[in-house]
Amino acid sequence: MSDDFPGTEGRPVRVAVVGSGPAGFYTIAALFKQADFPLQVDLFDRLPTPFGLVRGGVAPDHPKIKGVIRVYDKLAGKDNFRFFGNVRIGRDLSVAELQEHYDQIVFATGNEAWRNLGIPGEDLAGVHSATEFVGWYNGHPDFRDLTFDLENARRVIVVGNGNVAMDVTRILAEDPKRLETTDIAEHALEVLRKSRVEEILILGRRGPAQAAFTNKEIKEIGGLSSADLIVDPADMELDGVTRRWMTEHTTSQMTKNVDYLTEHSRQEPKGAGKRVELRMLVSPVEFHESDGRLGSVVIEKNELFESEDGTPRPRGSGVRSVEEIQLSFSAVGYRGLPVPGVPFNERRGLLANQNGRIWDPDSEKAVTGLYTTGWAKRGPTGLIGSNVADANETVERMLEDLRCRHTQPTQKPDGQAIGALLKTRGVDRVTYADWRRLDAMELERGSKNGKIREKFTRIDEMMSALRED
Ligand code: NAP
Question: 81: CA distance to ligand 1 center in Å?
């Protein structure tokens, strides 16, 4: 291998990873694990803080899940790693500029948007996406200033049967005292303390066998001391389509969920303060207004039919009812956003790619040097650990391309050039050492209030804290 081709001690491969959530860090883990090519990794994030959904998505009452940060922190301690926080690709630097400075670029930009229900009245005040609520209680700067009128809400609906629906339901149903020691944002805790929510209806468009939540998560709702989980035994009678489908497609999650909910449906409510009602085979079809904001929802009963591949799909039965509600949270999945300069698959809401190589649909060829991983690559599925195999696959493609020299080596391999360019643009880049200082400040603020951490929730607050430190 000649010295001017990347991959030698004198000329390491220069890799940019965009997005510092689990997908980004597991890509870095895989890159550091291989021994064939010396490399230098620069990690970019639009926020001054790293860790993506581990910081801004994982529920505050699930601190163990956040333990993965220790692994990421260790990777960030390597000499050939640098963090470029507070740098947005597409605003502060274009993809074309990244291509000038790096041999390979990996987009681990996740899914920053959410799916809507697409029904009348969805623009009313009081109709929210779960993503907004999750971001708000986790102190994500994008959502920090939203308002959720929990003080004037008695009945709310949560649409969807996934783990995000479970998180949102738990935060609404939990006794706020039990959240006081977590890293929940203080502004959210204040509002939750004043909440008058008494009843939460979770609406699943299919049946218990098709629920996407994991067994642990639904059991957590059933185990809340602050709320009763109400399940109608009639909803637990599996229809013919489901029973036929289950003969070949039963998974342990399905069996565990159906067994748990069937058992639960037979139990008497314990008489806790709040009610969480799990309603199956129903879809909201219209939101109606009252006094200028959400007042009620029309719900339609569904029936399941066998789709072409046998999967039970829902369709409206025409049987409708109206429920008075004051708030709605749709937890029906996320969607990726385009990165300017990178082909996007609009239909699937992710970066156009083939097994991690960014794919140009016009030329039907991989775009040299561009890759993707995580939700931006495969869509919003799986748990944090699912990103390990995904990142390994992308890194394998990157290494293959280096071996075959399917790489356009950067003409600007000088490691200082990108920082200098950002400086000329007045971009206030946050280093990993800066993040560690912010981290220490957040932990200290938390310990003063008996909390794990008190997050900075605005970008300007973070930048001023760093300047003043
Ligand atoms: P998800 O698991 O895909 O669940 C989405 C839910 O929305 C499904 O029940 C889906 O029903 C329903 N849905 C979709 N479109 C709908 C519509 N138009 N009307 C009514 N319902 C609709 O997505 P998620 O909850 O956003 O979670 C994303 C990923 O993050 C998942 O892999 C999840 O496990 C993970 N996560 C994990 C945790 C945890 O470990 N504690 C916490 C949060 C998230 P159908 O099945 O009928 O499509």
Answer: 34
Check residue 1 and give its pLDDT.
43
Amino acid at 99: Q
- What is the whole-number distance in angstroms between the Cα of residue 210 and the centre of ligand 1? 11
Q: Is 2 a residue whose pLDDT tops 50? A: no
Pocket of ligand 1 (CB under 6 A): 117, 159-165, 167, 205-206, 210, 212, 217, 283, 331-334, 380-383
Report the number of secondary-structure helices (H) and strands (E) in the chain.
15, 20
User: H or E element: which one contains 137?
Assistant: helix 130-137
Single pTM value for the model: 0.96
Q: Which amino acid, one-letter code, is at 423? A: K
Instruction: Please report, for the chain, the start and end positions of each structural domain, with discontinuous segments joined by +.
Output: 13-112+335-430, 116-332
What ligand 1 atom has the least distance to the C-alpha of 161? 9
CA of 162 to the centre of ligand 1 (A): 3
CATH architecture assigned to 13-112+335-430: 3-Layer(aba) Sandwich (3.40)
Question: What does 81-96 look like in DSSP terms, one character per residue?
Answer: EEEEBT--BTTTB-HH
Q: Average of pLDDT values for 408-416?
A: 90
Nearest-angstrom CA–CA distance, 163 and 213: 5
For 116-332, give the CATH class: alpha beta
Cα torsion angle, 219, 450, 55, 74, sign: negative
Q: How many residues in total does the chain contain? A: 469
